[in-house]
Design a protein that fits this description.
It is built from ten helices and eleven strands. The chain is α/β, with parallel strands linked by helices and 280 residues long. Strand 2, helix 2 and strand 3 (62-68) form a beta-alpha-beta unit. The mean pLDDT is 98. Bound molecules: guanine (GUN).
């Protein structure tokens, strides 16, 4: 069994990106820039945003964080995103989710132009992904693909099963695997015979947000198992996969923490660098 080390792989990627970021600085006369919009005081979002700022600094990307109070109006939030859309220092815009309940998330995200949509959440980028015509893919599924590639796990012709159909992970994950020529099945809360479908997977991606849901009887001998989930159970961080049991059957498995998580931020940095490189 090989452990898919997301922490180390993400560090390798950041080192590669530092080189590309230096070239951007030299050729554009400014750093690649990421604007992060954080509205309200969700503690988990605060931690994510600080991690993003730290990762940007390490690579040589300028991060511009806009912290707005929870009472911010829809108009104020949209005005900020519109000004960032025009801001020449900003190559990527990220509106940290979740937003306070009174804000219209869809309307706000629509203000981000596709070229600056480094989250890959826009209809244009999702559409390009669905048509296999490029576009920016969401960071977490992109991070999963990067792990599979860097560990030389074959995808073409393999049976891939994605558990979860969220817009942020499950759907784009299924599309990326399909674009890489896997035979893809997406399972969700209404799926019948989930166990037997998962047990056919050469590549099993768990992204449903239920701690230790994927048990050893749902995993084929020799499968690559990718765990996107992260929950706190009795003070310990656990994924959607019952790691202790499943690692005995899998040939590749991601740990939680230290698997997919660090890859997500590395892919955000990659999307910002790629957006800036288009201006060279
Ligand atoms: N909140 C949790 N994950 C994400 C993400 O990937 N992007 C944004 N914008 N917000 C998030």
């Amino acid at each position: 069994m090989t452990l898919l080390d997301g922490k180390k792989t993400a560090a390798d990627i950041r080192a590669e990106l530092a080189f590309r970021a230096a070239q951007i600085r030299e050729k554009l006369g400014r750093e690649a820039g990421l604007a992060v919009v954080l509205i309200g005081d969700d503690p988990a979002s605060e931690v994510y945003v600080r991690n993003k700022e730290r990762a940007c600094a390490e690579v040589g990307i300028a991060s511009h964080t806009y912290r707005l109070p929870a009472e911010t109006s829809q108009e104020e939030a949209e005005a900020l995103v519109c000004s960032l859309a025009k801001d020449g220092r900003v190559d990527g815009i990220l509106v940290q989710l979740p937003l306070p309940g009174h804000l219209d998330e869809k309307a706000l995200l629509r203000r981000i132009p596709a070229q600056k949509d480094v989250d890959g959440f826009s209809a244009e980028n999702m559409g390009l992904l669905a048509k296999n015509e490029g576009g920016v893919a969401a960071c977490t599924p992109r991070g999963v693909m990067e792990l599979l590639h860097r560990y030389q796990i074959p995808i073409s012709g393999k049976r891939a099963v994605v558990v979860g159909r969220s817009n942020i992970v499950g759907r784009p994950m299924a599309l990326l695997l399909l674009n890489a020529d896997a035979t893809v099945t997406v399972c969700h809360s209404k799926t019948k015979d989930l166990k037997s479908i998962c047990a056919q997977a050469d590549i099993l991606v768990a992204a449903l947000g239920k701690p230790r849901f994927i048990t050893a009887d749902m995993v084929k001998e020799g499968a690559a198992v990718i765990d996107v989930g992260i929950s706190r159970v009795d003070g310990k961080l656990v994924g959607d996969v019952d790691f202790e049991e499943v690692e005995k059957k899998a040939s590749f498995i991601t740990p939680v923490p230290g698997g997919v998580g660090p890859m997500t931020i590395a892919m955000l940095l990659l999307s910002v660098v790629e957006a800036a490189e288009k201006k060279l």
